[in-house]
Amino acid sequence: MNPTWEPALYRAFDDHRSRPFVDLVARIGPLDPALPRVVDAGCGPGHLTGLLAARFPGAAVEAFDSSPEMVRAARAAGVDAVPADVREWTPGPDTGAIVSNAVLQWVPGHTAVLQRWLAALRPGAWLAVQVPGNFGAPSHALIRELAAQPQWRDRLALRAAGTVLDPAGYAELLSAAGADADVWETTYLHVLDGDDPVLRWIEGTALRPVRDTLDDAGYARFVGELAPRLRAAYPPGPDGRTRFPFRRVFAVARRR
Length: 256
Known about the structure:
By secondary structure, the chain is an alpha/beta fold. The chain has helices spanning 7-10, 14-25, 49-55, 68-76, 110-120, 138-147, 167-176, 197-203, 208-213, 216-233; strands at residues 37-41, 60-65, 81-83, 95-101, 126-132, 179-192, 242-255. The protein has a single domain, classed as Rossmann fold (3-Layer(aba) Sandwich). The chain is built from ten helices and seven strands. A seven-stranded mixed β-sheet has the order 3-2-1-4-5-7-6, sandwiched between helices. Helix 6 (138-147) packs across helix 10 (216-233). The radius of gyration is 19 Å and the shape is globular. Keywords: Cytoplasm, Methyltransferase, S-adenosyl-L-methionine, Transferase. Catalyzes the S-adenosylmethionine monomethyl esterification of trans-aconitate.
């Protein structure tokens, strides 16, 4: 089941969440003039889709997302987004680049999606992917640990730590699928302000399946138990600001 999204909550840390998209797109080379279409696969609220038009002047930019809430937000922002699921979508013959930013970690078996996309792309086309690689970090591990407690384990089934591959795994996968791949990882150190900033961050992402499963009272109780655990794992520094390390894995591949 796809989680329900709240676009405004997702964008609460917009500057921090946007940087990986910019770093990913910067590594895509020039488009083949015969392949002028650029696709934002899982565009979210569409706030970054316009960067693709700026990066590739003259390209036909396409955007889609599986979340009705996100599609509505993108269209309200002037992006001609359409509803579609990455598990079913297939690139057209004129596709020069597919960009998938912080999407595929939500898709079980997403490696098969990458293989299928590459098989559909023409030689010279690009595939650029970024996925969070922090499922073993306290921000996510503490959610799973709490969900495994007796009061929650019969109600919650969450993603395991092995949701995504490491850089070597993506490099091997993309090479075997017929692409030359540039794969790397980066740990961003986000400096956050305010009370419980890590909790507020994951309420827009990792806690969405919990929010969808529990009623209001249950979710409030779960968050109430999680918050002190997160404060202990991510205490404010002497300046009162919280440092939140966030590892991400990037892959930019060109079809051979």
